[in-house]
Amino acid sequence: MRVVIADDSVLLREGIARLLAEGGIEVAARVGDAKSLLDAVEVERPDLAVVDVRMPPGHRDEGLRAAIEIRRRWPAVALLVLSQFVEERYAAELLSAETTGVGYLLKDRVADVAEFLDAVEQVAGGGTVIDPDVVRQLLARTRKSGPLARLTAREKEVLSLMAEGCSNSAIAERLVVSAGAVEKHVSNIFMKLDLPADDERHQRRVMAVVHYLNS
Amino acid sequence: MVDRSQRPPQRDKALAGAVGRAARPGDAGGPASIVFVNLVLQPLRRPLRSFGSRRTWLESADLVVNLVVGACFATATAAALLIVLATSWVLGVGVMCRAGALWLSGQMARFERWRLQRLGGVRVEPRRLPEPGPLASRRERQLAWGRASWLWSLPAYQLARLPLAAAAAFVAVGWAWGTVVCFVLAGQPKGPTLLLAWNVGPLALGAPGTVGLVVAGAAGALLWPALAGAAMALDAGLARRLLGPSRGSELAAQVSRLSDARSLAVESAEAERRRIERDLHDGLQPQLVSLALELGLARARNDQGSRAIGPMLERAHEEAKRAVEDLRNLVRGIHPSVLDERGVDAALSALVASCPVPVAVDVAVQRRLGPALEATAYFVVAEAVTNITKHAGAQRATVAISEQDGALKVVVTDDGRGGARLSPGGGLAGLAARVASIDGTFALSSPEGGPTRIEAVLPCEW
Questions:
Q1: Which residues in chain A touch residue B293, judged by CB atoms under 8 angstroms apart?
Q2: Which of A18, A48, A87, B87 would bridge A78 by S-S if both were Cys, CB 3.0 to 4.6 A apart?
Q3: Which of A5, A7, A10, A12 to mutate to probe the B interface, most B CBs <10 Å?
Q4: What are the pLDDT digits (tens) for B82-105?
């Protein structure tokens, strides 16, 4: 797997590069701003781009916009967007076009090496990884209408664990319930969020979150 | 250091100006002569002394100057007002024309004040002109003229002054003519009486008539300074009323200054918060994330139990130390506690020590000045020193803080490459806003090639 890293902090850029190298991942390019990111992706055509949201020159959401641009121009490149603050709006924008091979994580997650490498593998493999904080933000907002309002508290809990990428058995373990109970919750969630039943299983889980993001 | 109480209050100064030059008290003599001096000589002294004096000449000249200038300015004013009237219904253009007419009146008023000062020795304090904030755009500056309603007295002066000047000139010419006629006639007590080339026929004046004419002529000549002075006083009175400060204009100016100061205070506080956020976000946060990452890597290796984790721990250690240091600097940058405890001078020591360019600090203020003032003074220096470190490429820099006329003056200079600008959102602009928020003034001089000079004058009481 070949990766391009874009982060304006040299320290973090190098740190992430070493972390990826540790996981046996080749780092094709390291850049510090949005424009060089686009250039690097054009030249290197990596499997994955790890992108910081806030980058020069404006130090606003240049990275996010570059990521959306990459998705538009090179849909094959998977995107893992890192941010010092997780904002559900950013996640919604990122996931509005296409949800395969997209990840949106709090930057702090790099500290948990194994989990981070996991997320990288998952995104590069076409999966979707959403930071649990995003889900927390979504669930925190009380909306009177909308699909999420139909979920019970337990189902919301299950949904947020699903968004973290937990499997059914992992969720059962975390919530100290039987696998069968989780299975039931999950199918209830799919039903309440009007998700088609014939989707790929893995895809459906993430869709449950994305669905809400885009509503 | 100048004590505030030692300065004459502003009001007294204005009053002294309004009175103009007061007559000097007469010289004291013996008891017998006092009556004679006070009753006879004293009233005569002034006209006698002032006849032919520089002052009389200037005031006489002003009779002419006033009329000529008045005619020109009144014409220009009338034309400007007509244009304002004609365009008042055109959106946008009307506003610009009004601003332009008032601006023109302001320039003419400046000339009038100069004329009164030079020819009449009368000082007329300026009516307050619009003072847009330090960050106002060019257009805002122009339009500010149109919004200042108290400025309409400036064109009013031009229109009211012309008839006054004309009347004064008319009376003066008549007066001078009459005086000359008295002497001419007195010189021809007998025979055909010629008034210049004009034969007014044989007038039998006789001795009393001649004496009367001489006395009248002498009185006319002696009272000429009084006449010229009166004309000047009349003009000065009008000017003071219409060109000088009015209560309304002073209040309006104060209100606009205060509301500017308030919005600048809010803006500068907001800018400060953004700066702190940026510093934390771009400086400290990545460091701590990187530290966590380093430790995470070390832990992962440790879990595998095979490879050496020494270098990783070493890096993590270095990063932790650097983060602690940066946090310290950041906290200090938000508000150094020594500033509260020991004052500006003490706080500046550590600040300039961190600057790679040698900085000479001269703080000539010993007393404490209140937290807001001290903090502003400190941050003027801090921002300036940051700029010097980052951009100036200077060899040396100086910081001077002194107290003058109830204000704290902070001057920072460097011999660097210059070219510093007040760009919106920049550090210097934030500083200007912060200074204006406590009613101070901020001046930046930084020609290309240097040197750069930053001067902030902060009122000690605001």
A1: 12, 15-16, 19, 110-111, 113
A2: A48
A3: A12
A4: 998 888 888 778 888 888 888 898
